[in-house]
Amino acid sequence: MKEVSKDLGKYLNQHNWRERYNKILQKVHNDPDVQNFLRAHQSQLAPDAIRKGAAKLYEFVNEKEKLAKHEDTFAPGYKPRLIVNNHLIDISYAPEPKKIAEDNAAALAALVDAAKMPKDFKNATLDNYDSHGREVALDAALAFVERYRPGEFQQGLYLSGNYGVGKTYLLGAVANDLARKQNVHTLILHVPTFSVEIRDAISDNSVLDRVHKIQRVPLLMFDDIGGETQSPWFRDDVLGVILQYRMQERLPTFFSSNLTIPNLAEFMAAGKNGQDDSLKANRIMARINFLAKEINIEGPDRRTASVQNQE
């Protein structure tokens, strides 16, 4: 019977694999980073560490070359580095600065749940807020961010004003600044959209679960309240439940609306078939007044002005 080792050797020689393998090893061992690593850790490595770690050394050099050529790598965004593991050669992957920056940005974005909000909302900051004619609102927003402490209650803001004056942008600026400075988790609900979605949730019996999750958010913002189609069920069993919980637990809450608080009270008082639901509306408004103070924002339509500046 032929010896397996002789057959294997003959096969490798026929296909020049020994020569290829030796060239690979030579290339790996000549790599400056590999040489520096071996010199620096010579006393820590086992006598057969290089033989046993040949595959790791090759992986290191190969991945490093791919990075230099901007080719796809085994771990995109990570840079390979050699380490000593139990007296043998091993490889680990450390995130590159770009990857770290991207991960940090993603973590920051995750703190502000604003899936249904305008695109510029995500980039809003108090530093970039156009304060012309909006000084009072900006000062109040800055004061809130400055005083905010997790677990401590302070009144939020009820921002009223015409369409396009910067109410939603200011909500986003507060949320983004608190995320960046204190890792605060904020949920922003576009009320007209939310009212439709929560009504659809009746079909799968998920209304209560969604309400319970929403009412516990550290910082909650209702955008365009009063812009939804009036519904006694939404007012009492959804909005009322959330606001009651947040009032009891002293959780900061913000609002924006085209309606002033007195106008919103009239809107909330509309019941079925034209009946007057003032008592129920007053309960809602009492909670809103407890949770937030009204600030009216004036000034030109920011959206129209932005379009005109681009023309």
Backbone shape: elongated
Count the E strands: 8
Q: Measured on Cα atoms, how large is the radius of gyration?
A: 31 Å
Question: How much of the sequence is in beta strands?
Answer: 5-15%
Any idea of the CATH topology of the largest domain? Rossmann fold
Q: Identify the CATH architecture of the largest domain.
A: 3-Layer(aba) Sandwich
The amount of helix comes to 40-55%
Along the chain, the helix and strand elements come as HHHHHEEHEHEHEHHEHEHHEH
Which strands sit side by side, in order, in the main sheet? Answer: 3-5-6-7-4-8
How many domains?
2
The structural class is alpha/beta
CATH 4th-level superfamily of the largest domain:
P-loop containing nucleotide triphosphate hydrolases
Low-confidence stretches: 306-311
- Number of contiguous helices: 14
Largest β sheet strand count, sense and barrel closure:
6 strands, parallel
List the helices and strands and how they pair.
Elements: H1 4-14, H2 17-30, H3 32-40, H4 49-52, H5 54-68, E1 78-85, E2 88-95, H6 97-111, E3 112-113, H7 135-147, E4 156-160, H8 167-182, E5 186-190, H9 191-200, H10 207-215, E6 219-223, H11 232-249, E7 253-257, H12 261-268, H13 278-291, E8 292-296, H14 302-310
Parallel strand pairs: 3-5, 4-7, 4-8, 5-6, 6-7
Antiparallel strand pairs: 1-2
Helix pairs in contact: 2-5, 7-8, 10-11, 11-13, 12-13
